[in-house]
Design goal:
Elements: E1 3-7, H1 11-23, E2 27-31, H2 34-44, E3 48-52, H3 60-69, E4 78-82, H4 87-96, E5 100-103, H5 108-120
Parallel strand pairs: 1-2, 1-3, 3-4, 4-5
Helix pairs in contact: 2-3
């Protein structure tokens, strides 16, 4: 069973994503800010990270940079989750090291397709 780390500060989004992913057979872990997300990625070594970009402490862009700069976590796929849908936002996320970009509101079938693609390599 693949483990997905959800880094999200909105309780409703976190709860909804966790429950829906667990129903699809994924194990989930969570962090509520960017720094906690980096620390959790290092300790848990999840198979994939769903990273909100607008986070407290450090934002999702910086958290992704730190995760991708660390040899122990650099190969973990990171999916940017954001309400910012402009091409410049996508470019910024990809430059930070995100492997994919998905805009909110989240439609589960589309997100599951991205998760499956990244986990299957």
């Amino acid at each position: 069973m693949a483990k997905i780390l959800i880094v999200e500060d909105n309780d409703m989004n976190l709860d909804m994503l966790s429950r829906r992913l667990q129903r699809k057979g994924y194990e989930t872990a969570s962090a509520r800010d960017g720094q906690a997300g980096v620390e959790q990625a290092l300790s848990d070594k999840p198979d994939l990270i769903l990273m909100d970009m607008s986070l407290p402490v450090i934002d999702g862009w910086e958290a992704t940079r730190q995760i991708k700069a660390n040899p122990d976590t650099k190969t973990i796929p990171v999916v940017a989750l954001t309400a910012h849908a402009m091409q410049s936002d996508r470019d910024k996320a990809m430059e930070a090291g995100c492997d994919e970009f998905y805009t909110k509101p989240i439609e589960l079938p589309g997100l599951l397709e991205i998760i499956k693609k990244l986990l299957d390599g």
